[in-house]
Amino acid sequence: MPNGAQALMKTLVDAGVTVCFTNPGTSEMHFVAALDSEPQMRAVLALFEGVATGAADGYGRMADKPAATLLHLGCGLGNGLANLHNARKGKVPIVNIVGDHATYHVKYDAQLQSDIETVARNVSPWVRTSQTTAELCTDAAEAIAAAMGPPGQVATLILPADVSWGEGGVPAALPKLPAPPCNSDEAIAAIAALLTSGGRNAILLGRRALREPALMAAARLAAKTGVRLLAEVFPTRLERGAGLPYVERIAYLAELASVQLADLDNLILIDAKAPVSFFAYPSKQSYLVPDTCTVHTLASETQDVLGSLEKLVRQVGAGETAPVLQAAARPGRPRGKFTAEKVCKAIGHLLPERAIIVDEAQTSGLMLSMMTRGAPRHDLITLTGGAIGQSLPNAVGAAVACPDRPVIALVGDGSAMYTVQALWTMAREKLNVINIIFNNRSYAVLNIELQRVGAGEVGPKARDQLDLRNPALDFQQMGASMGVPSVRVTTTEEFNVAFERAVKTPGPHLIEAMVPSAISGLKLKVLPHVLSSLSSLPQPLARMIKRKVSP
Fold first, then answer.
1. Euclidean distance between CA atoms 378 and 242, whole angstroms
2. Confidence (pTM)
3. How far is CA 121 from the centre of its chain?
4. Which residue, 131, 165, 199, sits at the end of a domain?
5. In the prediction, which pLDDT does 491 show?
6. 82 vs 85: CA distance, rounded Å
7. Is residue 328 a part of any domain in this protein?
8. Helical H segments across 64-153, by residue range
9. The domain spanning residue 278 has which CATH number?
10. What 3-state DSSP class applies to 469?
11. What is the Cα Rg of the chain in Å?
């Protein structure tokens, strides 16, 4: 009869969980040994727990099913919390398996003993410690079901060592998952009446509503009724490009988002929440929906998004309406002074078919959306929870989930240092990931925030906390040291050539783009004043400024 770990492995695989991103320790050795008992389970080693959790996040976004992580005790789980936070905010399915001391060892309060359940609850709505080998697989099946949702979530199963090595494990089947319900006919009819009665209306699309079927349904509504389509600021996964409807994302900066929402009478939410400012700022609103706008919900996170949308399409008579689709269009090959905008332009010019873009470029990626709008169809993954260090691990998971698709990870230099160990996993697994690191030697986005929050006079000590020049980071050397072919580029044409070569050559690549900060000098000083003036400007002028700052 199998031990607990072997039965757990069988339970995972039978439920479709066939990838485990691991960073194990002593308490997990029986699970590690059990990997060889199940040929369908792929184990991917990470050198840091934040890489394992971020990879599971990227995998879940692209595979639409959970991967497992294997983490060592509360300390290991704690090291992976930032990317589990991003997964929680993105409602991504993940099954965490966290080893613990043997049940009889806990009372001795050994050096690594901690309250793992308390650590897990920060990011995981479902948490359970298996108490016996006999209960383990039932617990695991319930964890998988909880992770799959709806909504998707992080589920954490804590595995004591003696439960893992105990004999008599029995694999368990996944419980039947109920289909999510549509919203009520009455609620859908009320929203249909709003859309057909005129007024200034917008639909805010989130998570599942940003996939092709839902996008097409929403685009038919827009073509029929004139309702505006908006997307949440940081989508879990957005399908976009030529042949798909274009959806305008809510801006990150609250002042710009307020311009987008200023004239609305009704805002209809579909698997999204009403927009709020990322942070509180002195004398500024946190809730960004205007007082004159009424918020409605067509489908919540636990409801059937596509079914509710299709009912609404029928209600307004838009079933045969042709949606407006994005025409194929690429920017020209960039030339001239090397900037972050030129990198974004080159990506739009050369983006391969069916690419997956993982965007954590921060200020360097301001022009990415505009430059790739008409590029070949692609998926976009973004920083859902705001915890930096997501892009490189997400790219690992996306590449494991979709080995036949090119993955392009865009990341700033400061963010890259949080989980740079992901490069080693890419090389070890021979993953098709092109890593583009914008090296402006600064926490550039924080320079903007320092100006916006009204922190007062900024002196040399404050500026030094946001500067990465001393000592200078060298990602070309770091990438090469971890087995990833790497190049540093300082001109636009050098970048064009490096990116073309990476697109054509399988395996991982790193391009270190030495670019100036996208917003610096006079632009940085003027930006807060421009933003604060938007609410007093005529709407057409405010919208023009919004498009200029964040297209």
1. 9
2. 0.95
3. 20
4. 165
5. 98
6. 5
7. no
8. 73-79, 81-90, 116-121, 133-148
9. 3.40.50.1220
10. coil
11. 24
